[in-house]
């Protein structure tokens, strides 16, 4: 009988730990709080590595998520819509950049606040943007430049 009670107690502890992890994960994804948000828009030349649900960060802190991505047929740019928490009020001259967490990390949208006195209203477009930088493209330029330097030095 004592063996059975120990098994039930151990199962209960495991169940409580699993529920704790589930609650923590739900809070991290955004299911935990009912904080309100507003939408902002931005057009990028390239949104490589970004998808719906990608983090929007300010000073490294998640303040929103990408909610919509679509190609603008008139400009051939990618139009992104993202939600930002209500308590984050950005100046009108703020910038939106696609940044990388590192060589092996994913991409995210980084917001850089400007210095204007007026804030962006809901639904406004951030004009100052920088798209994703292709790491492979940079490496190919570097390798190509190094090869040219090597050939140029040998020809002299």
TrEMBL record:
Mce/MlaD domain span: 37-114
Pfam families, sorted: MlaD (PF02470)
Molecular function in Gene Ontology: phospholipid binding; phospholipid transporter activity
InterPro entries assigned: ABC_MlaD, Mce/MlaD, MlaD_Phospholipid_Transporter
Top-level taxonomic group: Bacteria
NCBIfam families listed in its UniProt record: OM_asym_MlaD
Annotated protein name in UniProt: Outer membrane lipid asymmetry maintenance protein MlaD
Biological source species: Gemmobacter fulvus
Source taxonomy: Bacteria, Pseudomonadati, Pseudomonadota, Alphaproteobacteria, Rhodobacterales
């Amino acid at each position: 009988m004592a063996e059975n009670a120990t098994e039930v107690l151990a199962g209960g502890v495991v169940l409580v730990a699993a529920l704790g992890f589930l609650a923590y994960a739900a809070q991290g994804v955004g299911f935990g709080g009912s904080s309100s948000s507003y939408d902002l828009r931005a057009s990028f030349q390239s949104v490589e590595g970004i998808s719906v649900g990608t983090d929007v960060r300010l000073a490294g802190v998640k303040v929103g998520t990408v909610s919509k991505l679509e190609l603008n047929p008139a400009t051939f740019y990618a139009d992104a819509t993202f939600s930002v928490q209500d308590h984050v009020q950005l100046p009108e001259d703020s910038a939106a950049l696609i940044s990388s967490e590192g060589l092996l990390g994913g991409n995210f949208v980084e917001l850089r606040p400007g210095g204007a006195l007026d804030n962006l209203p809901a639904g406004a477009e951030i004009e100052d943007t920088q798209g994703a930088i292709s790491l492979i493209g940079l490496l190919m330029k570097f390798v190509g430049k190094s090869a040219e330097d090597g050939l140029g030095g040998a020809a002299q």
